[in-house]
Amino acid sequence: MSELKHVAVAGATGAVGVEILNCLEQRNFPVGELTLLASARSAGKTLTFKGKEITIKELTKDSFDGVDVALFSAGGGISKEFGPAAAAAGAVVVDNSSAFRMDENVPLIVPEVNPEAVTEHSGIIANPNCTTIVTLMGLNPLHKAFGGVTGIIASSYQAVSGSGAQGLIELEGQVNAIVKGEPLPEKKVYPHQIAFNVIPQVDVFLENGYTKEEMKMHFEGAKILRQPNLKASVTCVRVPVYRSHSVSVTAIFNDKPSVEAAREAIRNAPGVQLADDPTATPPLYPTPLDCANQDDCIVGRIREDVVLDNALTFWVVGDQVRKGAALNAVQIAELL
After folding, report:
1. Of the candidates 2, 96, 306, 325, which lies 20 to 30 Å from 72 by C-alpha distance?
2. Which sequence spans correspond to the domains of the chain?
3. What whole-number distance in Å separates Cα of residue 232 and Cα of residue 244?
4. 10-residue averages of pLDDT along the chain (336 residues)
5. 252/219 Cα distance (integer angstroms)
6. Which architecture characterizes domain 132-320 according to CATH?
7. Do residues 59 and 43 touch, judged by C-beta distance below 8 A?
C-alpha cells in the first residue's frame, strides 16, 4: 500500500462512525482519500473531516474499488453482506460488529493485548465487544504479571450510549418526565424504566440463563488471550449513565498476585492508567465521568480477593464509544 491510504468508513453517520472520523483526524492517520458510506437515506449528506466537507455515498458492494482500509460500524447484517465484498476488492476490513468475531479465520484484536494477531488476517479483522475491550485493558497487564488468568467473575455497569442515540433519548425523556411530574414516555429501547434504575439485562437471554452480551466476554476473552480454557461468569447491567462502561472484575491467576505488583503492572501498561488510593481525600478511584471522551481506560479498587485463592478484584472504566469501539478500530488500522 502507498504511504497515504484510501480509507472507507461504512456506517459513517452513526455514533461510532463519527467517532472513527474524530480518531482518524486526531491521531493524524495517513488518509489520502476518504470515502464515507451509509444507507441510501443518508447519501448526499455531508460530514466534516479536517475542515473539508465530504459527501456521504450509498453503501453498495461496488463501493470499495481502490480502498486500502475499510472501517465498518453499521451492524452485523451489513458487515456480513458488504464486508466480504470489500475484502474481495482488496481492502482490509476492520469490523466493529459481532459478525466475524468468533470466526476462527478472523483475528480478534485489542492492539495493546495481541497486536501480533494482525498478521493473521485474510482480509477481515474483528473489533471485540466494547465490554470485553474495557475489561481486557485492565486485566491483560495482570494476566502477564501473574502467570496467566484462569477464570473471571465480572459485573459490568454499561452506559445507555451503548444502545446508540435512542438509549440516550430514552433516558433523557424519562428523567425530564419524572422531574416535571409528567407521565413517562413509551419505552422503546429498554424493557424497564432506565431513569433512576438499573436493568440487569443487556442483550437477549440464551438457554443457559446468560445474555449474549455476557457470553461475549467468555468467548472473546479466551480467543484474544489465547487461553482456550478461560472461563468468564459475567453479569451485564444497564445503568443510567450517558457514556463510559465500568466493570467490576475478580480474576484468578496461576501465580499468587499482590496488590503492589498489580499496581505496578497497570502503571507500566500502555493505554491504561492507575487511579487507586483509598486513603486519599476524597478516595481515588475511576468513575465513568473520568473516562468520557478519553482514550485510556482507568483501573482502581485493586485488592486481594477474600474468597478465592490467587485472585484479585479490581474496577476498570473506559469510554465504550471511543476505546470500546472507534479508537480500537483505528488502532488496528494503524497496526496494518
Report:
1. 2
2. 5-127+326-335, 132-320
3. 21
4. 86 95 97 97 95 97 97 96 98 97 97 97 97 98 98 98 93 98 97 98 97 97 96 98 97 98 98 98 97 97 98 98 97 97
5. 17
6. 2-Layer Sandwich (3.30)
7. no
- For the chain, what is the radius of gyration of the CA atoms? 20
Residues whose CB falls within 8 Å of the CB of residue 333, separated by 6 or more in sequence, listed in order: 7, 29, 69, 71, 92, 94
CA distance 93 to 86: 7
Per-residue buried b or exposed e for 210-245, using 16+ beta carbons within 10 Å of the residue's own CB: bbebbbbbbbbbbbbbeeeebebebbbebbbbebbb
Q: Which residues are catalytic?
A: 130, 245
C-alpha cell at 142: 495482570
- Report how far apart, in Å, the C-alpha atoms of 69 and of each of 10, 32, 133, 184, 219 are: 11, 11, 21, 44, 27
152-209 pLDDT, tens digit each:
999 999 999 999 889 999 999 999 999 999 999 999 999 999 999 999 999 999 999 9
Residues contacting residue 299 through CB under 8 Å, at least 6 positions apart: 138, 266, 272, 273, 274, 275, 276, 286, 314, 315, 316
5-127+326-335 CATH fold: Rossmann fold (3.40.50)
This prediction has a pTM of 0.96
